[in-house]
Amino acid sequence: MTELPSPPKPSASASAPLWRRLLPPLLAAALVAVLGIALLNPAHNATDGGPLVGKPAPEFTLTSLDGTRVSLASLRGRPVVLNFWASWCGPCREEAPLFRELSTRQSAGQGLAVIGILFQETNEQNARDFIREYALAYPSLRDPGIQTGINYGVSGIPETFFIDREGVIRHVDRGGLTRERLNVGLKKIGVPEL
Amino acid sequence: MRRVLLGGAWAVGGRLLPSALCLLLSASLALTPAQEARAEHLGRNLRCPICTGVPITESTNDISREMLREVREQVAAGRSDRQIYDYFAARYGNFVLLDPPKEGAGMLLWGAPLAALVAGGAVLWGFLGRRRAAVAANPAAVPTPDEPFDTYLAEVQRQTRPKRPQREGDQA
Amino acid sequence: MLNLISFQASALGALGQLALLAALAFTLGGTWLALVGGLKADTRATEAARRAVWAVFALVSLGTLTLMAALLRDDFSVRYVAEHSMRASPTWVKVTDLWGALEGSILLWTWLLAAYAFILSLTVRRDALRPWALGAMFVSLLFFVGVCASIASPFIPLARVPADGLGPNPALQNHWMMAVHPVLLYLGFVGLSVPFAYAVAALVTGRLSDHWVVVTRRWTLVAWTFLTAAIVAGGWWSYETLGWGGYWAWDPVENASFIPWLLTTAFLHSVQIQERRGLMRSWNVWLIVLAYASTVLGTFLNRSGIVQSVHAFAGGPVGPVFLGFLAFLLILGIGLAAWRAPHLRDEAEPPAPVSREGAFLAGNWLFLVFAVMVLVGTLFPTLVEAVQGRRDTSVGPAFYNAFALPLGLGLLLLMGVGPLLPWRRADGQSFWRALRPLLLAGLGAALLAFLLGVRAWGVLGTVALAAYNLVGLGLLTARAVRQRGGGLLGLVREQPRRYGAYLAHVGLIVVALGIAFSGTYKRDAQATLNVGAAPVKLLNETLALQGTRQIVKPYGRSTVARVLIDGQPFEARLNTYMQAGETAFPAPAVRYGPLGDTYLVVTAFDPQGNWASVRLIESPLVSWIWWGTLIVVLGAGLTLVPARRATARVPAVRTAPATD
Question: Which helix (H) or strand (E) holds C541?
């Protein structure tokens, strides 16, 4: 090292103000706190919420597997439970008995309507078998080009939308439903709990 | 949470035939080269909603392909970039915007590097400025070039002077 | 209570676990001894702590070897082997399984840390800093050995020994870089713990020993070299296996390895100011502390699963533990630095703005802004999530590139100025005179590139700055050769540090050109090819599918498409692995060329073998990134070579070694 006889240093930095000394550890503590919150309350695992909650449900007119056309507009005035599913999806299979139970609660007029929309179904026969196996008494609609899936922001299945009588999405549930999670959604659209 | 995601980030999908067909279909919409470039740019900034941080142009699953088709259709229909981003954000949330909007909380994001640049520049300027203050207060303290503070430099100066003016030499 | 050992269940497992527990005992003892040695200035305690390091290293080595033996012998009574390996894997995959999953990767980390501690214990001098440097090393060891021996132990007994293991993560069997990139990265990350230990010692004692600068610089340079090689090796791995023709996606975990690189690069420059002028002492300590903290942050992000990343290990119990260590290191390390760094006073007044110091400090400024930018971009989604309670933000390449481009160009600009300027201060006039040929070369190169059709301003800027840097380094070297006489080789032998640095700069320029051209002019196109059909024109090539075939291996299968591109055969594959069902992992066929690569990926196959969908990517100068990095690494290695004694012609070099 080329140490040199240097002039006495201006002693300005010898005693930095307290706030300047405290600032870096405080910033570090804030960083750790944020990471801690993110680690211990992982919001990205949330199964509900989303940008569509509180917004009017996107319109669709689709054809069901048995050939009837169903549009959301025709269901206006009824609470609607809209379930995106496919036959190849395991969790869909697990929640199917709940949907079977729910489908018995449908009634015309002002009553509940349940709609299934097939999401990237690869084999329609499998879907038909699935419907028969779980005796699902509601229409399941084909969604060519995933147009409706994209409109609802579906990124994985099962995903279930709870739409109220005014046609507004009140609740979204991602992942396999349980009775409790189904009831949370039903309550928000004014349907008696299961 | 149990949920079926459709193919991983880099997975090339188990359903092969539909992929190939869609590929051909998506190519059918004719765009001008400028529109094509715009669609590509937009696609690069839209996140595949079911992958880990991959834009829809880089993932081969069906939903990315359909989103890309949607982008191309909207580009062909003459919608603005902003309208197209808003279209997807309204459905999937801001989560799909890989080019975060410069508004709201996004201002914090975009402002942070600029703030760091300005703050760092100010600190650096202040630090280098201390020398000027010291020079002004105590001119004798500044080593003059004659001072043998650095034998190496002095040697280099001595060596290089005869040739032609050097930067090092110019210091003297 | 965790059941850690069962002698009946597994002999190897019990041996490994015992080794790790014994290592933990020695680590605890060593920490205590180092503390006593430091507080009471007791050299006998310090010496004992030093020997405890040897025991820890030996025992952790035993644990690591045990796990490796268990992997190679398919001993599924060891939990880690049962969960992450299988009989059918080829031997190289079994070896890499050691760091292919969470527990093993922590064990490898621990082993490297113990190895570095061992080297430190052999080289650390007998002075006041010694107990504290050993103590800081022991604190890191305590955490990693503790985690390894308890919650993340690979040796926790299994209830039932399976007949075969579950096998490794399929993505990690897909390319041999798995054997290289993680090890290099850990060597880089862990290597920074040694300069950190010296920094802590300097902070605790409030002084710097004579050789502090030399030692920290060397250790940081070693770690930096590994880190550089590791980052680029990771990019190459991504290029070779992910099938998108890119190498850097600003993924959170990639970013986490880049932040320490930026901070250590800043340190390697500013430490020279301290070496030459005795300035920036507290600043340099700060940079080391921040660089080490950023490696721990990166490890935490990688292992906690709080960021979305292709690299992240699944969460698990280690997340909170790593958070605790991160909190401890960040708050205590930064607190210590904030409190004690002002005691490391500088001996001279601040440098002049137009001087080499000034250029280095301006570089530091840009490096830090760069690091802040990457850090903010990486953590912003997590921050929004913590505040809003919902994950609703993504930060993609658009953000990073918007800043990385101007910052990178700014750094290239300063890179040319630095070597040109003398220490202390330069007068403006002569500085401009020296800069003029460089600027002219830059302008000329940019003009030439413009005439050749380059329009992207980022590329024009990179070309201009590349020419400017090369002319600058060339002029400096040519002048030195002319003055000294006797050829370049003798000059390099006399001043390996200076010319090593020049070489590293040349390598960085090559890398920068590679990034600029491949990032801007990458083109891709897709097509579906039928076997035996007429060739398809794609980009500038004609493609014809000759045929497809299947290769079945015990651990999976490959579907291979043989495609003729302009008459040359390419074999691109889709691999599937037992653990991942039908999910296909692409293995692109790449033809490397000095001016550009031709890159072919298969995206889909006809099950009957009649057609294949392919993506063809052409990107110019990609290879320059890999070759440039090799030059950087060679240059960095050269700076570590001791200088040969100078000839009598330039005696001054001897009196001021290790200056440039």
Answer: strand C541-553
Classify C138 in phi/psi space as left (phi over 0), alpha (psi -120 to 50) or beta.
alpha
Say how far apart CA C506 and CA C500 lie, in whole Å: 10
Do the Cβ atoms of A152 and B91 come within 8 Å? yes
Residues C182 and C97: their CA atoms lie apart, in Å, by: 11
- Give dist(CA C632, CA C510) in Å, integer: 9
Q: CA of A57: which chain B residue's CA is closest?
A: B91
pLDDT tens digits, residue range B130-156?
Answer: 776 766 665 544 444 433 344 444 455
Q: Which residue has the higher pLDDT, A141 or C5?
A: A141
Q: Which H helix or E strand runs over C71?
A: helix C43-72
How far, in Å, CA of B121 to CA of C399, rounded? 21
Phi and psi at residue A83, to the nearest 5°: -120, 120
| Complex prediction ipTM | 0.87
Asked if C96 and C85 count as a contact pair (C-beta separation under 8 A), the reply is no
The residues near B67 (Cβ < 8 Å, ≥ 6 apart) are A150, B43, B46, B48, B56, B88
Band (C16; pLDDT cuts 50, 70, 90) = very high
Q: How far apart are CA C611 and CA C599, in angstroms?
A: 19
- Choose the closest CB to C331 out of A6, A25, A43: A25
| pTM of structure | 0.88
Instruction: Report which of residues C365 and C331 the model is more confident about.
Output: C365
| Chain B residues close to C310, C-beta within 8 Å | 9-10, 52-53
C-alpha to C-alpha distance for C257 and C109, rounded to whole angstroms: 15
Instruction: Looking at the complex, report in whole angstroms how far the Cα of residue A78 sits from the nearest Cα belonging to chain C.
Output: 30
Shortest Cα–Cα distance, C249 to chain B (Å) = 8
* C-alpha dihedral sign at C127, C129, C135, C139: negative
Task: Identify residues of C whose CB sits under 8 angstroms from chain A CBs.
Answer: 210, 213, 275-278, 293, 300, 304, 306, 308, 319-320, 323, 326-327, 330-331, 334-335, 337-339, 342, 345-349, 379, 382-383, 385-386, 388-392, 656, 659
Taking the CA of residue C392 and the nearest CA in chain A, the distance in Å comes to 9
Q: Answer whether C653 touches B (CB < 8 Å).
A: yes
Which of B8, B97, B168 lies closest to C394 in CB terms? B97
Nearest-10 crossing angle of helices C102-123, C43-72: 140
Dihedral angle sign, alpha carbons of residues C181, C187, C192, C195: negative
DSSP state of A74: G
Rounded to an integer, what distance in angstroms lies between the CA atom of residue A98 and that of residue A179? 7
- Who has greater pLDDT, A117 or A176? A117
Could you tell me which residues come within 8 angstroms of residue A93 by beta carbon, excluding any fewer than 6 positions away?
A130
Cα–Cα distance, C110 to C144 (Å, whole number)? 6
- C423 has a chain B CB within 8 A of its CB: yes
Please state the three-class secondary structure of A26-59 as a single string: HHHHHHHHHHHHHHHCCHHHCCECCCCCCCECCC
| Least CB–CB distance from C323: residue in A4, A22, A36 | A36
| CA dist., res. C602 & res. C586, Å (int) | 7
The verdict on a CB contact (< 8 Å) between A155 and B92 is yes
Q: Does the pLDDT of residue B35 top 80, yes or no?
A: yes
DSSP-assigned beta bridge partners for residue C550: C559
| Beta-carbon separation of C244 and B156 below 8 A | no
Verify whether the Cβ–Cβ distance C434 to B167 is below 8 Å.
yes
Percent of chain C with pLDDT over 90: 62
A104-131 pLDDT per residue, tens: 888 877 889 999 999 888 888 999 999 9
User: Helix, strand, coil proportions of chain C in percent (round to 5)?
Assistant: 65, 10, 25
Q: Is A178 on the interface with B (CB under 8 A)?
A: no
